[in-house]
Amino acid sequence: MSQPNIQAKIRSNPKFAELVGKRTRFAIILSLVVLVPYYTFMFLVSTQPQLFASKVAEGGIVTIGWPIAALIIVGGWLLTGVYVSRANGEFDSITEEVLKEARK
């Protein structure tokens, strides 16, 4: 079977449209969950630095901004793991079904 025929079968498959929709929605949601807190934090640090200037412990040097920034970074890593897990599970299984049907 020629390459254009397989591509046409894949694009016309309703499961492919479902895959694209699910993957796009999931990626947008995860991107917003990561980017909104990050840019909110950056905006607040640049416009209202006193919000993050209080010390975590009396006499310490660590301000409240450090753990918040660390949470944002670790949260981004964790959400990357969530995406990879779903991509390797649900998204890959739908992809295999689409390819199997296209090769018929």
Textual characterization of the structure:
By secondary structure, the protein is mainly α. It has one domain. It is built from three helices and no strands. The protein has helices at residues 3-12, 14-47, 65-103. α1 (3-12) crosses α3 and α2 (14-47) runs antiparallel to α3. The longest helix has 39 residues, at 65-103. The chain is elongated, with a radius of gyration of 22 Å. The termini are close together.
Could you outline the blueprint of secondary structure elements for this entry?
Layout: H1 3-12, H2 14-47, H3 65-103
Helix pairs in contact: 1-3, 2-3
pLDDT average, as an integer?
93
How big is the Rg? 22 Å
User: What is the rounded distance between the termini?
Assistant: 9 Å
Q: What is the strand content? A: under 5%
Overall structural class, as computed from helix and strand content, comes to mainly alpha
Given as residue ranges, the uncertain stretches (5+ residues, pLDDT < 50) are none
Query: Helical content, roughly?
Result: over 70%
Helical run tally: 3
Overall number of strands: 0
* Shape estimate: elongated
Order of helices and strands: HHH
- Any idea how many domains? 1
Largest sheet: number of strands, sense, barrel closure: none
